[in-house]
TrEMBL record:
InterPro entries to which the protein is assigned, alphabetical: Amino_oxidase, Carotenoid/retinoid_OxRdtase, FAD/NAD-bd_sf
Highest rank taxon of the organism: Archaea
Pathway participation: Carotenoid biosynthesis
Keywords: Carotenoid biosynthesis, Oxidoreductase
GO molecular function annotations of the record: oxidoreductase activity
SUPFAM superfamilies: FAD/NAD(P)-binding domain
Name of protein: Phytoene desaturase
Domain Amine oxidase: 16-489
Record carries keyword GTP-binding: no
Keyword Oxidoreductase among UniProt keywords: yes
Amino acid sequence: MQSLADESVVVIGAGIGGLSTACYLADAGADVRVIEKNEQLGGRASRLERDGFRFDMGPSWYLMPDVFERFFGHFDRTPTDYYELTHLDPHYRIFFKDGDEVEITPDLERTKAVFEEYESGAGEALERYLEKSRENYEVGMEHFVYEDRSRLRDFVDLDVARQARGLSLLGSMQGHVEGYFDHPKLQQIMQYTLVFLGGSPTNTPALYNLMSHVDFNLGVWYPDGGIGAVIDGVAELGAELGVTYDTDRPATAIKGREGAFLVETPTGPLRPDLVVSNASYAHTEQELLPPERRGYDADYWESRTYAPSAFLLYLGVEGDVDDLAHHTLVLPTDWQEHFDQIFEDPQWPDDPAYYLCVPSETDDTVAPDGHSALFVLVPIAPGLEDTPEIRESYRERILDDIADNTGTDLRDRIVLEERFAVEDFANRYNSYDGTALGLAHTLRQTALFRPPHRSKGVDGLYFVGGDTTPGIGVPMCLISGELTAETVLEDYGRAASVER
């Protein structure tokens, strides 16, 4: 067992990746302090609380429960030591804008029957698709997610090649899905999870069909109290392991190197032996490090493909919204135009696909009696002009669209409203161009093509979070924390004198 006893570490940023890394490093004996620029822990998984309403501001889907079980299991704990889970039924509801309505439930036979209604043989095709998805998930997670293959030499290995032989590594998700289903609505159902990866059907590798195993086979869950309860659980675990937390304490510069760092903050400098940044990779390099210590220049960050930003409405409303499920998707029958207006010709979408989260359908603690809490999320291009006038106009468009396509008119029942968009992502999270997620999962930005956990320019500086491996999403960032901690231990760990 490797130990980091006598090493001090500052983790910059209290997103799920930073909190995860802190747990692993503290467990290895390091003295760990997490500093966070905002008023609460969680990063993009912050909470918004107003007038008795509570919203998860960012992630709201609890997927890949096995990842959370593995994380807590490393510390001889279980998720239920910190929060309870509810299996959602339906997993989600889809309103197509031509009037069709589809529910995806935990009952696979029922889902197969839904698919058959659209296309003869599609039920059996779904089974074949999910079998391939399961295979990709199991092999991919074991050999390519939990193992950090971030360098070319990690792939030039016969065992790696053997494990990869059966995976759908090349081609796009669009081409892969078309091999199973002809009907465009079925293709959309199989591809909606790409929003969690920040990509489109045409720029996301077919490998990510593994997300359908996550969706259909592992299920969609709700942690009582929302994703914020998961943040609380991971932070509580860290505190039990000795991690300390400072909120409202941004890092303003990183100077020095391993054994002699100086992390500047408004309330005084910190002098750790090692530093882990869970802040935006681009922000850390371009704003916190001097030019000669950066691993990537401004041209590199300018050339990347970024995941969408988002236009969000957090709404407290009078009465019920029973036409909406806990997770609800509203999709145009042809959504390619929306993706084009994110990745090809950036503009506010004319006919948007969007997501509604209504936690009050499951959890009566998130809204006052007689009220509902929900938020609307419209993926939009990062870097768009974002003014109060544009937000007001788009708000009107979205409320009309919800009424027209779900039968739920919210307009006269809204008692609380907050808005969040491109400028807020940039200001609150220091995200590049206001992206909501970070680097998209294109083929050229997957695995070894993502920035590494080790800084290229500063010994003792490490990175964690969605911009590095394994990538975007709460489960992936949780794993990223493990991979970053393993990298630190590889570089600075010593043989422990006693077992944990």
